[in-house]
Design a protein that fits this description.
With 397 residues, the protein is of the alpha/beta class. The chain contains 16 helices and 13 strands. Helices cover 42% and strands 15% of the residues. It has a seven-stranded mixed β-sheet, with helices on both faces. The chain has a three-stranded mixed β-sheet with strand order 1-2-11. The termini are far apart.
C-alpha cells in the first residue's frame, strides 16, 4: 500500500484494540425484534436497537412493503427529478407533513443525507449556525459543508445559546440546530426556551427528531408535541430507520419555501436514487398506524419507566432520560466492554459505548427500550445486569 499507510493503519487499529475501543460487528441471522438469533445459533434479548415501537418486523409493514414491491417494482433506477418520483413517494411526504403538522416534506435516502444536504443550500458566509455540542455527527458534518459562521453552545445550556445568538447578530440569517433527543444521553432539548430565544434574536430553528419521533409526546410526534409547539419549528429532520419501521430513509419537513428550495438545491436529494417502493409503502403504513392510536407509544413509556426504576433500585446510575434511551453509566471503557460481553453470555444483547462515540471516561451501555418488550423481558434484563454488575464491581447491591 502506497506510502506506508498499511503499517500506519495497522498500528492505529492495534492502539484502538488495546484501549478497549474496537467496535466488533455481531452478526444476526433473524429479523430485527425483541429477541434475535445470532450467527452461532444463540437467541438473545435485544436491548440495543432503535426499534422503539417494535415495527421493524411488524406483519402490517411487511405486507405493505410486499404490496408496494408487487405494484411499483424493486427500485426506480433514477433520482427524483428525472424519472424517479412515484405516487407513493408523494403520499408518504404528505403523511409525514400531516403527522408533524408541517407544510411540506422532502424524502432522502437516510437522515444523514437529510442533515448533510440541509445547511449548504440555505446558508452562505453571510449567515451563522448555532449548534448544540452534543448534536449528531450528521448535523456536525452538514454544518461543515456550508460556509456559515459556526457557533457551538453547551448541551441544552440556554445561557450559552443566548450568548452565541448575541455574538451572531451581525449575520444575515441565524439558524439554531439541535437534536430533539440526544442519542447517547436520552435527554430532550429545551424547545420552549430555544423557540423563545429564536424569536427574541430573529433566528430559525432546526430540530433533528430521529430519536424522538414516534417516542416523545403523547402521540409520538416528537419534542414539538411534548412542548406544545407543533408547527412552530422551521425545519424538522427525521428518519424512517428507527421508530417508523427501522429500514432506511430520511426526511426534512417544515416551511413550504424551505422544502421547495431544498428540492432545487440539496445535493444528496438531487444526486441520490429514490427510496425503494417497498420502503415507501411500509412507511405510509407506519404513519397510518401511529396516527390511528397511541397503544405502542403508551406501552413504550410504561416499559421505559419500569426499566429505569428497576435499574436504579439495583444500584445502577442512569442518566436522566425523557425518551426510550437509558444510558447505564460505567465510565471505564474496558469495564464497559467486559460488561457488555458478559451480558451477552447471559443472553442480553447490549453494546458498550466509549470514546470517540462519547467523551473520554464517560463510557456507558446504552439500553434502548421497545414497545415489543414484555415485563418479563425487562425483569430478566435487570437480573442479568445486577449479576454482572456485582461481578465487575459496578454495583454493590
Amino acid at each position: 500500500m502506497c506510502g506506508g499507510i498499511k503499517d500506519h493503519l495497522q498500528k492505529q487499529l492495534r492502539e484502538i484494540r488495546s484501549a478497549g475501543l474496537y467496535k466488533d460487528e455481531r452478526v444476526i441471522i433473524s429479523p430485527q425484534d425483541r429477541c434475535i438469533k445470532l450467527e452461532d445459533g444463540r437467541e438473545v434479548l435485544n436491548l440495543c436497537a432503535n426499534n422503539y415501537l417494535g415495527l421493524s418486523n411488524h406483519p402490517e409493514l411487511i405486507a405493505a412493503a410486499k404490496s408496494a414491491l408487487d405494484d411499483r417494482g424493486f427500485g426506480l433506477s433514477s433520482v427524483r427529478f428525472i424519472c424517479g418520483t412515484q405516487d407513493i413517494h408523494k403520499t408518504l411526504e404528505h403523511k409525514i407533513s400531516r403527522f408533524f403538522q408541517t407544510k411540506d416534506t422532502i424524502l432522502y435516502a437516510a437522515c444523514f443525507d437529510a442533515n448533510g444536504g440541509l445547511f449548504e443550500p440555505l446558508l452562505t458566509a453571510e449567515d451563522a449556525v448555532i449548534s448544540d455540542e452534543l448534536n449528531h455527527a450528521s448535523i456536525i458534518d452538514g454544518v461543515r459543508l456550508c460556509k456559515a459562521q459556526r457557533y457551538v453552545y453547551r448541551n441544552a445550556a440556554m445561557d450559552d445559546l443566548e450568548d452565541k445568538l448575541k455574538a451572531a447578530q451581525a449575520r444575515r440569517f441565524r439558524l439554531i440546530a439541535t437534536d430533539g433527543v440526544f442519542s447517547m444521553d436520552g435527554n430532550t432539548a429545551p424547545l420552549n426556551e430555544i423557540l423563545d430565544l429564536a424569536q427574541r434574536y430573529g433566528a430559525l430553528v432546526m430540530v433533528d427528531e430521529c430519536h424522538s419521533a414516534g417516542v416523545v409526546g403523547s402521540c409520538g410526534r416528537g419534542i414539538t408535541e411534548l412542548f406544545g409547539r407543533m408547527g412552530e419549528v422551521d425545519i424538522i429532520t427525521g428518519t424512517l430507520g428507527k421508530a417508523f419501521g427501522g429500514a432506511i430513509g430520511g426526511f426534512t419537513t417544515g416551511r413550504r419555501e424551505i422544502i421547495e428550495f431544498l428540492r432545487q438545491r440539496s445535493r444528496p436529494y438531487l444526486f441520490s436514487n429514490t427510496l425503494p417502493p417497498a420502503v415507501a409503502g411500509a412507511g405510509i403504513r407506519a404513519f397510518d398506524m401511529l396516527s390511528d392510536c397511541t397503544d405502542l407509544q403508551d406501552k413504550l413509556r410504561r416499559n421505559t419507566s419500569f426499566f429505569v426504576d428497576a435499574m436504579q433500585a439495583a444500584g445502577f446510575e442512569i442518566k436522566p432520560t425523557q425518551s426510550a434511551i437509558c444510558a447505564v453509566m460505567i465510565y471505564d471503557a474496558r469495564i464497559t466492554q467486559e460488561c457488555a460481553a458478559r451480558l451477552l453470555e447471559e443472553g442480553i444483547y447490549v453494546i458498550g459505548f466509549s470514546f470517540p462515540v462519547v467523551p473520554r471516561d464517560q463510557a456507558r451501555i446504552r439500553v434502548q427500550l421497545s414497545a415489543a418488550h414484555e415485563t418479563g423481558d425487562l425483569e430478566r434484563a435487570v437480573a442479568a445486569f445486577s449479576r454482572v454488575g456485582r461481578e465487575l464491581g459496578v454495583v454493590s447491591n
